[in-house]
Amino acid sequence: MKELEDRIRKDGRVLPGNILLVDSFLNQGLDARLMNQMALAWQEFYKDEPVTKIMTIEASGIALAVLTAYRFGVPALFAKKFATINLTDDRHQASVYSYTREKSYTIAVSRRLLTPDDHVLLVDDFLANGCAMAGLADLVREAGASVAGIGVAIEKSFQKGPDLLRERGLTICSLARVESLEEGRIVFGKADA
Ligand code: G4P
Predict the structure, then answer these.
(1) pTM for this entry
(2) Please, which of 31, 69, 120, 164 could form a disulfide with 54 given CB 3.0 to 4.6 Å?
């Protein structure tokens, strides 16, 4: 998505450790117009899927999920994060390993809000190691629901995530594909929309 790439070129900053800082328009600061265009791009890409819900994990995917849900005319839903497994049967849960923090956490959503008739589009701001999205897909399947696909704003294609998710048979629509952040330079590959 050209507008997103242009904005990353203009306002994105590369931090040590291959981190791309986009806090002025996608993380802390939110550019609603740009995010709405991103939602439109996913709506077009997944137009043949009978999507019933848009899901993400708290926190930074929520704004994108809300705008995308509005475009599709379906509810948005976010999984909450917990430090430990919580033994309760009123929630669907999955475990997620964070390479960044070197520990696992639990994601959970109420059973009332995600049911077997749901066909869910997963969205998030970044796809890095992919464990968060893989965990979310596990949670959807645990609920007996199906995954329509994944919408990612910025894919870091040099990390493990894209392959991990494709190996699981999941479709990904990445709006900006970053192939390298070496020496502070942002190198883009061809995006999916
Ligand atoms: P992953 O499985 O989600 O790919 O997670 P990983 O542990 O690799 O990344 C940890 C967190 O860092 C994730 O946010 C992810 O979105 C974020 N992240 C990864 N690479 C970048 C980057 O280059 N720039 C920025 N700004 N963030 C990055 P999270 O723990 O899910 O937290 P939240 O921000 O959604 O609350």
Answers:
(1) 0.96
(2) 69
